[in-house]
Amino acid sequence: MKIQALVTSGEINFEKQTLVLDEPRADEVLVKIVASGICHTDATVLDQTLPVPYPAVLGHEGSGIVEQVGSNITTVKPGDHVVLGFSYCGHCENCLEGNAGGCENMIPLNFAGKNNHGVTPLHTEDGQDVSQFFGQSSFATYATVGENNIVKVDKDVDLRYLGPFGCGIMTGSGTVFNSLTPEPGSSFVVFGTGAVGLSGMMAAKIAGCHPIIAVDIHDSRLELAKELGATHTINSKNEDVVAKIKEITSKGADYSLETTGVPEVTLSSLRCLRVKGVAATVAVGKRDLTINIFNDVVANALTLKGVIEGDAVPQLIIPKLVRFFKNGQFPIDKMVEFYEFEQINEAFEDSKNGSAIKPILILDKTYKA
Fold first, then answer.
1. Looking at the predicted structure, is the pLDDT value of residue 208 above 80?
2. N or C: less crowded end of the chain, CB within 10 Å?
3. CB crowding 261-298: b at 16 or more within 10 Å, else e
4. DSSP single-letter state for residue 342
5. Which domains does the chain show, CATH number per domain?
6. What is the rounded CA–CA span in Å between residue 132 and residue 59?
7. For the Enoyl reductase (ER) domain, which residue ranges apply (predicted)?
8. Which are the contacts of 355, defined by CB distance < 8 A and separation ≥ 6?
9. Mean pLDDT of 331-350
């Protein structure tokens, strides 16, 4: 079938084109995309920090409505509302142990441009292959995806808000719920109050953490952090972050979440911890980190862990997050800005300059919640 998609190439970031999308195989689903979040990971492909074969259709926070299902699909049917998550194989040791975020095939399945069948369902009208991204390529009007990408959600929730649950929001909250697993009353610090950081912070509030400290360089984002659950905020341009955190917590924080990828911030996320504290980082960055292992880690018996996609299984965590959203515990609508399909360059720029925390592209203007 023919679809409209935003194609990324080496010459241009986004060009609206007509593409040909393969019909779903027996284990695949055709989804009409309603909306797609814009994530920092998309931006890292544009600057080739994370290389993806060009041309490609990016977008990996899609939400939409099932249009057609393959003959082997039993989890969804046409008309169901779904969120699209990342691709995972489902049969490696980590997947079988319930850590799809640690799938041993994560990189090829999400960044190599092909699906689990070793092909891409996207093609130009003259037959040239176009890379699929994260098994979905949601910057398009339709997507053909594998069953592992599909998460069924309630029809009474506005689909336009739900796409980011498939990556950024799942990453931040899952890192807290699944990887850090803080005890009630634990002190928690988040470095960077973008969508991932704020999601981690809201998860820390649900988990019963106290105090909850938000660190950023934008006062406007810190104000929103207060509204969403931060008990303290620190503008790192104006204060000594480590000293301030230790003043607030007395001994240092129990847990920290680093989302920026800035080496100096990563060091702060370690140095602010108490003895036996744990820091998690989910960031993608280009700069190397120089660290003194004894002074920064061993001396206080600290743990620094990298977390992919919140150590989450999308089919388990996303329905929980949607319930939190419905009952007011996860008010992501307060950090969302909507953009039309053709405004994608503006949306990326607003995300880069900090004026939009979570931009979401509307692909289907006819959708009514």
1. yes
2. C
3. bbeebbbbbbbbbbeebbbbbbbeeeeeeeeeeeebbe
4. G
5. 2-166+331-362 (3.90.180.10), 172-307 (3.40.50.720)
6. 9
7. 10-361
8. none
9. 94
Residue where the block lists tokens 């009007």:
141
Which helix (DSSP H) or strand (DSSP E) does residue 198 occupy? Answer: helix 195-206
Helix (H) or strand (E) holding 352: helix 344-353
The continuous run of DSSP H or E covering 241 comes out as: helix 241-249
CA-based angle 50:361:176, to the nearest 5?
A: 60
Give dist(CA 227, CA 216) in Å, integer: 15
Q: Are 179 and 72 in contact (CB under 8 A)?
A: no
Closest CA to 147 of 321, 16, 55, 24: 24
How far apart CA 19 and CA 295 sit, in angstroms, is 54
Give me the DSSP letters along 136-195: T--SBSEEEEEGGGEEEE-TTS-GGGTGGGGTHHHHHHHIIIIII-PPTT--EEEE--SH
Compute the C-alpha angle 85/129/116, nearest 5°: 40
Q: Quote the CA–CA distance of 193 and 222 in Å, as a whole number.
A: 7
Torsion angle, alpha carbons of 68, 80, 316, 49, to 10: 60
- With CA atoms as reference, report the closest residue to 58 among 37, 81, 28, 74: 37
Give residues with Cβ within 8 angstroms of 293, minimum separation 6.
none
Burial 19-58 (b: 16+ CB within 10 A, else e): bbbbebbeebbbbbbbbbbbbbbbbbbeeeeeebeebbbb
- Residue for token pair 């280009």: 286
Query: What stretches of the chain adopt beta strand conformation (E)?
Result: 2-8, 15-21, 28-37, 56-57, 62-69, 81-84, 122-124, 129-132, 142-146, 150-153, 188-191, 212-216, 232-235, 253-258, 273-281, 303-306, 336-340, 358-362
- Does residue 194 carry a pLDDT above 80? yes
Rounded Cα gap, residues 181 and 206, in angstroms:
11
Compute the distance between CA of residue 136 and CA of residue 133 in angstroms, rounded to an integer.
6
Type of residue at 361: L
Residue 217 amino acid letter: I
